[in-house]
Design goal:
single chain, mainly beta, six-stranded antiparallel β-barrel, globular
Length: 109
């Protein structure tokens, strides 16, 4: 993968990691903690409508390119204001630890 053009990493996203805690009753609760605020390129890939709980909802897939981070994993997510992008795969495309391509999904309410 060649380097993205200058100015392509113009979106500021928050990288978040899950933190598991328990309630008084013993139930597990997942909260999200901020890991870093990073520059990224967000490219929409596809979208479709799916039936969920007797209603229609949207499903969008995105490709997000960021500078290499050794701690980026598919358990994390990106946040852009109210928008949330769940990471499904993290790819070091050329194996040179310069760029990561994250395959993400954004679900619409």
């Amino acid at each position: 993968m060649s380097a993205p053009p200058i100015g392509a990493l113009r979106r500021r996203l928050t990288l978040e990691a899950p933190v598991r805690t328990s309630e008084e009753g013993g139930a597990a609760v997942i909260d999200w903690s901020e890991v870093a605020i990073i520059s990224a390129e967000v490219v929409a890939q596809s979208g479709r409508e799916i039936v969920r709980a007797d209603g229609l909802t949207g499903r969008l897939t995105h490709e997000i390119v960021i500078r290499y981070r050794a701690d980026a994993t598919p358990t994390m997510r990106f946040r852009d204001g109210e928008r949330v992008f769940a990471i499904h795969a993290v790819l070091d495309v050329d194996g040179r630890r310069r760029w990561l391509k994250c395959l993400c999904e954004e679900r619409l309410p």
